[in-house]
Amino acid sequence: MGSSNEVIVIHGNGNLAGEVAVSGAKNSALKLMAASVLGRGATTLHNVPLIADIDVMCEVLEHLGATVSRDGHSMTIDTAAVDRNETPYELVTKMRASIAVLGPLIGRFGEARVAMPGGCQIGARNIDMHLVGLEALGVQFDVHHGFIVARTPDGLHGAQVTLEFPSVGATENMLMAAVCAEGQTIIDNAAREPEIADLCAMLNEMGACVSGIGTSTIAVEGVAPESLHACEHTTVGDRIEAGTFLAGGALTGGPVKVTGVDPAFLRMAITKLEALGCTVRTGEDWVSVERTGPLGAVDIQTLPHPGFPTDLQAQFMLLCALGEGLSVVTENVFENRFMFAAELMRMGANIDLEDHHAVIRGVDGLQGAPVSATDLRAGAALVLAGIVAEGYTTVHGIGHIDRGYEDYVGKLRALGADVMRKDIGARP
Ligand code: UD1
Fold first, then answer.
1. Which of 297, 307, 303 is nearest to 266 (CA)?
2. How many CA atoms lie within 13 A of 262 on its CB side?
């Protein structure tokens, strides 16, 4: 982000067609990096996306004493010399996912100090389930001057835990501690996101014993912390980036082919694209979308995987905004994730918000306007909106987009969109 004040300017030419390769999944790579702490050596990760959130996780690991070296999309993290167990406020406030090191630090050292995450734009995002799960494994928590201080006076032991909600972060933090606990841990109502399966696979490559991978009941047989070792692992493709480009293809008609992702990760999104009037084709590691008729209407509710992902909610709300008829989008995962709707209305969309429901009446077209990215996915969706809007759209707050999309502008340009970054001078 730097000190410059960049925006993305889009001239709505309605063009988006061709083939695009997705990067490695942000939400996977961040946790794989955190897990490297357990390996006490040089772990190499491949297919790591070049995005700002990954840079923050590098800082977190370096702060702990790790050495990180990068070569394109590969990264080697040597955690042999990690001798600190504290993650400071500055880094946790920059990126909430920094708390993913809590589980691995507890697993390796039996203790950790992690700054408490503050509020976040997309809802409360509490960590109560992380703490309840870890407490069941024998962790005791105190809050000291804004830090969560974790200790394990009697060691870590296995436990059976049923999560109140299949939280992605809580499942991951529990997993990364449980691999070092004495005895068996069962995580019931575990999150089933493909990124969690990726993490489980890496933990097993490091010498852990995790089963039930990809299901809502994950079993972990604890091993001695010293027996875990470094490994080499390739990050799974980013299904959300893929879904974003597919939404773009559905918006313009495409055809857009997205490569580097397992279509099985996108089943619900594909179902909704078809319901909206698109033709979707899939191969082993690609998905394509095309539309010749008008966009229709569809009802969508976000749910934990394999339900419709909240991270694609804004992109699909955009499709509904230009579809024929009435659509209802219901957000069940995060409260307060409809800020995008207000921006889209400034471009001419017709949306009524009622609690966690958005009632969308399709309009014939959108008009370019200055708009603000309120979060990462909203930002990506606003750029797509600009591609089909009449005239020019300027998206502000694009630091959000840089957090999670590698070279978004470059990839859209390669697909024919008239999109560019522009520095509009120093921030006020
Ligand atoms: C992860 C993803 C995010 C995605 C989300 C849901 C990363 C870095 N981020 O976020 O992109 O949108 O999964 O798929 O992987 N909650 C609690 N208490 C807890 C934990 C969660 O109340 O202890 C609530 C949250 O406030 C939220 C919901 O549960 O409303 C889902 O959170 P969770 O599944 O944990 O998402 P994250 O891991 O934060």
1. 307
2. 11
Using one digit for the tens of pLDDT, what is the confidence trace for 341-392? 999 999 999 999 999 999 999 999 999 999 999 999 999 999 999 999 999 9
- Give the integer Cα–Cα distance in Å for 127 and 165: 12
Q: To test ligand 1's pocket by mutation, which of 164, 167, 238 has the most ligand atoms within 8 angstroms of CB?
A: 167
Question: What is the whole-number distance in angstroms between the Cα of residue 344 and the centre of ligand 1?
Answer: 24
Cα(321) to centroid of ligand 1, in Å?
Answer: 26
Residue with the smallest CA separation from ligand 1 atom 17 is 126
The residue behind tokens 């995580």 is 187
Cβ–Cβ < 8 Å for 235, 205: no
SS (H, E, C) 279-343: EEEECCCEEEEECCCCCCCCCEEECCCCCECHHHHHHHHHHHHCCCCEEEEECCCCCCCCHHHHH
- φ/ψ of residue 148, rounded to 5: -90, 120
Q: Give this prediction's pTM.
A: 0.96
Tokens, residue 92 = 């946790």
Query: Residue 379: which of 97, 118, 52 has the closest Cα?
Result: 52
Catalytic residues: 120
Cα distances from 359 to residues 298, 351, 385, in angstroms, run: 11, 6, 18
**Cα 287 to ligand 1 centre (Å):** 26
List the chain residues with pLDDT less than 50: 1-3, 119-123
The whole-number pLDDT of residue 365 equals 97
Which residue has the least CA distance to atom 39 on ligand 1?
A: 169
DSSP-assigned letters across all residues of 151-162: E-TT--B--EEE
pLDDT, tens only, 123-134: 455 888 999 999
Ligand 1 atom having least distance to the Cα of 304: 14
